[in-house]
Amino acid sequence: MRAQFVMSEIGVGLRRNLTMTFAVIVSVALSLALFGGALLMREQVSTMKDFWYDKVNVSIFLCNKNDAETSPQCSKGAVTTAQKEQIEADLKKMDVVDVVHHETAEQAYKHYREQYGDTPIASTITPDQMQESFRVKLDDPEKYKVVATAFAGRDGVQSVQDQRNILENLFSLMNGMNVAAIFVMGLMLVIALMLIVNTVRVSAFSRRRETGIMRLVGASSFYIQMPFIMEAAFAGLLGGVVASVMLLVGRYFLIDHGLALSEKMQLVNFIGWDAVITKLPLVLAIGLLMPAVAAFIALRKYLKV
Q1: Are 298 and 200 in contact (CB under 8 A)?
Q2: Left (φ > 0), alpha (ψ -120 to 50) or beta: where does 304 sit?
Q3: What is the chain's Cα-based Rg?
Q4: Could you count the other beta carbons within 10 Å of the beta carbon of residue 220?
């Protein structure tokens, strides 16, 4: 009987405040969708870092005859055969080094022509202008400075470059987008909480006679508050369901179909469906508990029972 009464009161409250309930559902859905999107974005950045950092190399560029005039590091002239052999031997002795590959000037020129052969500047480049280099694969990409410290400034070495720097701008942009999403999510969350509190208070005010009668007949505070709390929890749960659908649909259209980023950007290791599905229980739990807790706090202060 009590359960039937509580459920009937929930239906009455939702019908009386239909517009505000709809606003709560929408605001909760948007805030939780942004929350889930921020979590997925952070996981995507982490996945891309793991994928790309495992493939990038440290490049040690060697001096050629043209660098002697333009680069202070090559003031002693082009790298000698003895210097190249010594650099390669020292690299192979280092514990942090996994693989060492020597790229000749001819090979560098061939790769350059393959990538930029259609550009006007490509016709002005000759093989003797290209630099020889050692492409170094590290066991731990984070230990780039060990190689840089050991070889930067050595005779015959023009520069030491970490290819991770090429990716840092991309990751910084994605992290910035993630921070912006979290900020907007926080703003939407505040709006949702304000709507929940106002909705609960309006509902409590519209049923003040019923709650007054219940107090007179000895109903407990929890029993009086329960319909209002469950109204808010129900609206929040609906918002969580909508947010979950938005996350699923978003991944479907952005990665698999629609924009089909997985086909257009095949070099990017996108997160899978499992990453999205594992976030849904958290989104639903927050959607259920957040309005319930907000309503409970608002009612304790408003009803004073």
Answers
A1: yes
A2: left
A3: 31
A4: 11
